[in-house]
Specification:
Belongs to the octanoyltransferase LipM family. By secondary structure, the chain is an alpha/beta fold. About 40% of the residues lie in helices and about 25% in strands. The protein has a single domain (about 5-275), classed as Bira Bifunctional Protein, Domain 2 (BirA Bifunctional Protein, domain 2).
Length: about 280
């Protein structure tokens, strides 16, 4: 039987505002029935700190350090914590909530979509698996993560290699469409990451950074050979095709579609009102 064909967009490196606007535009077009489900790969130029929809900038984020490092800054339309997008492959999946492959609950849909990422890690020769919070305390910490750092907070169906988190994802559902996007870390500058958040004092920061090392890891810290961005794209594209049992067909945006994306970027994701609200 022929496999279902989804679109595949490798949009390359763009600004934070463009990246979030394109994810939103794809969600819009899918909700209007203009496009089939989409898997997109992208990067960030400049490197960017993205924060979750509900995070409070003045309370959690050290904007002086964001500027000092020359980073972009954007609020995502999805929940979750702060992510430094630098040495990584970022992915997004846009698919209707009514799609026959998509379970009704967020957690189960997350597991189905993440199957593609799991297979991608296997394609890189890494022994990745899903971790599920076992204890009541773990489950409670999902609802109230203490840390502002994404890779420090536990979540359902976390992707783990050698006991440490290797990918962080977030999901939103709007207009009958699921948008899940996330970071697959190739390398990580921990000092830079931890300089971007506010802490009660230096001791707390040191303790959190130390604990972080035991919870999260980048691919190249544990891979047998250095994984380049091109190797990662190939592995995870094949992973999504296998994990979701689909065929991915490359697609380039039209001028008209790009104009719509730039309009959303300018009106929402470049605006202080959006990025610094709450």
């Amino acid at each position: 039987m022929a496999k279902e064909v989804w679109r595949f967009i490798d949009s390359g490196n763009h600004s934070a505002a463009f990246n979030m606007a394109l994810d939103e535009a794809l969600l819009d077009w899918n909700s209007e029935g203009k496009i089939p489900p989409v898997i997109r790969f992208y990067g960030w130029e400049p490197a960017t700190l993205s924060i979750g929809y509900f995070q409070k900038v003045e309370k959690e984020i050290n904007m002086d350090m964001v500027k000092q490092h020359g980073l972009g800054f954007v609020r995502r339309p999805t929940g979750g914590r702060g992510v430094l997008h630098e040495h990584e492959l970022t992915y997004s999946v846009i698919v209707s909530e009514e799609h026959p492959k998509m379970p009704k609950t967020v957690t189960e849909a997350y597991r189905v979509i993440s199957e593609g990422i799991l297979k991608g890690f296997h394609n890189l020769g890494m022994d990745a698996y899903f971790a599920v919070p076992k204890t009541e305390a773990d489950r409670e910490s999902l609802k109230n993560p203490r840390s502002a750092v994404c890779f420090d907070a536990p979540s359902w169906y976390e992707l783990v290699v050698e006991g440490r988190k290797v990918a962080g994802s977030a999901q939103t559902r709007q207009k009958g469409v699921i948008l899940q996007h996330g970071s697959i870390l190739l390398d990580l500058d921990e000092d830079k990451l931890f300089s971007l958040f506010k802490y009660p004092n230096e001791r707390v920061k040191e303790r959190m950074q130390k604990a972080f090392k035991s919870k999260a890891v980048a691919i190249n810290a544990i891979a047998k050979e250095n994984v380049t961005i091109e190797m990662a794209k190939k592995a995870f594209k094949a992973g999504f095709e296998e994990g979701l049992d689909i065929e991915l067909e490359p697609y380039e945006l039209t001028e008209e579609e790009l104009a719509y994306v730039y309009k959303i970027a300018k009106e929402r994701y470049e605006s202080d009102e959006w990025n610094f609200k709450r």
